[in-house]
Amino acid sequence: MTPTPVGMRCPECSRQRTKVKTAATIRTGGDPMATYVIMGICVALGLGSLLSGGQATGLGDTLAVNFGLDAPDVAGGDVYRLVTAGFLHAGVFHLLVNMYSLYILGSLLEPAVGRVRFLLIYLVALLCGSFGALLTDPNKLTVGASTAIFGLMGAALVVMRNRGIDPMQSGLPLWIGINLVLTFTISGLSKGGHVGGLIGGVIAAALLFELPDRVRRLPQAAAMVLAGAVGVAAVVASLAVA
């Protein structure tokens, strides 16, 4: 046996280079087109808000009032706010921070999991984040893509682990930790929305990637239906809370 940095190995194996997996390994190719489309919608709505007289910082524009998330309006029948709130932002800085995060995470995750599953994770995380926001801040007008972005962070951890990659190599756990600390220390951020989105993204990714590995002969379509059911459950729970 020959001593090596990874332990004792046979002479033949010690001369072979160990294959290392990194965070970049999960990329399978292709442009993150769904990510670009989501970013384009958010930017277009942000510009539209400014051009229509909206504020550069904070809420108060017509789009936020008519499509932002709050319990009274959802209870009044505006169920669409559970989704539309995730494409609006409270000013330019809010928009830029979220779009930068979405670009980084989308460029990493979408090519690895495919466009359809990426969109499914994004939507489930968004709906779970809306439920969390209604749970903790029912009467507060809430907007922002950060609920779904937290879900993408959680999903990326699951995918890395599923592909045999150490998530610590990417720095993602530290990034999540910092963002959670900011969530609970900075006023104005949606605690329930961020935590709900994170949990939703983890559950959706686990159903899509971990469950098929543990349950033999489970079709991928069945895993996608189960993940979608989480989003439906979040809508039902949101209506109950509202």
Task: Describe this protein's structure.
This protein is mainly alpha-helical and 242 residues long. The chain has helices at residues 11-14, 33-51, 62-67, 71-75, 81-84, 92-113, 115-136, 146-162, 172-185, 191-214, 220-241, and strands at residues 2-4, 7-9. It has a two-stranded antiparallel ribbon. The longest helix has 24 residues, at 191-214.
Provide a brief overview of the structure.
With 242 residues, the protein is mainly alpha-helical.
Can you give keywords for this protein?
mainly alpha; 242 residues; two-stranded antiparallel sheet; 2 strands; 11 helices; 2% strand
* Strand elements, count: 2
Order of adjacent strands in the largest pleated sheet: 1-2
Radius of gyration over C-alpha positions, nearest whole angstrom: 20 Å
Order of helices and strands: EEHHHHHHHHHHH
- Strand fraction equals under 5%
Biggest pleated sheet: 2 strands, antiparallel
Number of DSSP helices? 11
Q: Helical content, roughly?
A: 55-70%
Overall 3D form: globular
**Low-confidence stretches at least 5 residues in length (pLDDT < 50)?**
none
Mean pLDDT: 87
Structural class: mainly alpha
**In angstroms, what separates the terminal alpha carbons?**
66 Å
